[in-house]
Amino acid sequence: MIQSASEKQSDLKKRWERFRAGNPNVKIREAAKALGTSEAELLVTEIGASVVRLNDKFAELLQEFHTLGQVMALTRNDAIVHERQGEFANVEVFDAHGKMGLVLGEDIDLRIFFKNWHFGFAVTSEKGRGKLRSLQFFDIDGTAVHKVFLTAASDLAAYEKLVGKYRSDDQNQVIAISPKPAKPIEKADAEIDVAGFQKAWAEMKDTHDFFGMTIKFGVSRSQALRLADKKMAFQVSTESYQFVLEKSVQRQLPIMIFVSSGGVIQIHTGEVENLTAARGWYNVLDEKFNLHIKQEEIASAWVVKKPTSDGIVSSLEIFDKAGENVALFFGKRKPGNPEKAEWRKLLAAVQPI
């Protein structure tokens, strides 16, 4: 007998309740994997209780996040979790190949791609003796792209006002989840104009030129690094991020850490202080910034150098088992200023493999 969508959702709700009862400390992302579903679909089973579905006016909602005051912004992928406390300041929304957003606050710094924001929810969950409230956003396949959690310093009345204003008229416990489009098949290296590609790399004037260059020559990001002049990109140990973080702490060197979910790039800028490894995760545990790297998921790492009008800008890029770029590490800098010599010296100590 073929189940209807509502029957499937009812069955999922029961399975989710049983699973959570037996695994009270499980993270919802991990629970979704274990149950063969998506995080968004699990949240939908709680609409009417602890979850409110939001409408799709995500760009308008983003521009009101500043009313919440101090919050914690979370962006993650399967390998890395990036958490930053602060306020949403200097928010801008614009159209450029699809609606995009910028958040350029001192603490919360985001690049937002609304084409990958398909579902939004206000979620209330139990945390110790209190309640944890958040706004959570998901891609078409039900994967989280960004979450905003209230803190003790947040404005609860402003949160409730936003939930009421952006509450969807549709509070049914069914959503239309579908797979993400398949990624293009990588071309064979023999089909790439490697000489032309390396010349274009050498002539870059801005780090943002890199993406357009990969499109022009039809290369994936990982393939681009593999085909680059070895002076401009070379592979290093998968544990190089630990070396970079540890040396940054020792030298009190401010750095930039970029992590992408596909719908958001979240950036930390500043010094890191407290490092620890536990249960397979390598962590930064600072007052306003937490980073969690699932060590077994990191499959490759590269030191990358890009020419700009301000001189060479160098970075450490790490990739997961699927070949996806999961994080980038840079020395702290702003356009118009050259890269710090201390950062270059640090990366120079990371040896090729």
Please provide a written account of the structure:
By secondary structure, the protein is of the alpha+beta class. The protein has two domains: 5-90 and 117-165, Heme iron utilization protein-like fold (3-Layer(aba) Sandwich), CATH 3.40.1570.10; 189-348, HemS/ChuS/ChuX like domains (Heme iron utilization protein-like fold), CATH 3.40.1570. Helices cover 26% and strands 34% of the residues. It contains ten helices and 18 strands. It has a nine-stranded antiparallel β-sheet with strand order 1-7-8-9-2-3-15-14-13. The protein has a nine-stranded antiparallel β-sheet with strand order 4-5-6-12-11-18-17-16-10, sandwiched between helices. A hairpin with a 6-residue loop joins strand 16 (298-306) and strand 17 (313-320). Helix 6 (194-202) runs antiparallel to helix 7 (209-217). The longest helix has 18 residues, at 5-22. The termini are far apart.
Walk me through the topology.
Blueprint lengths: L4 H18 L5 H7 L4 H6 L6 E4 L3 H5 L6 E8 L3 E7 L4 E5 L3 E6 L4 E5 L5 E9 L2 E9 L5 E11 L1 H10 L28 H9 L6 H9 L3 H7 L5 E4 L3 H12 L3 E6 L3 E7 L4 E4 L2 E5 L3 E6 L3 E9 L6 E8 L4 E7 L9 H8 L5
Antiparallel strand pairs: 1-7, 2-3, 2-9, 3-15, 4-5, 5-6, 6-12, 7-8, 8-9, 10-16, 11-12, 11-18, 13-14, 14-15, 16-17, 17-18
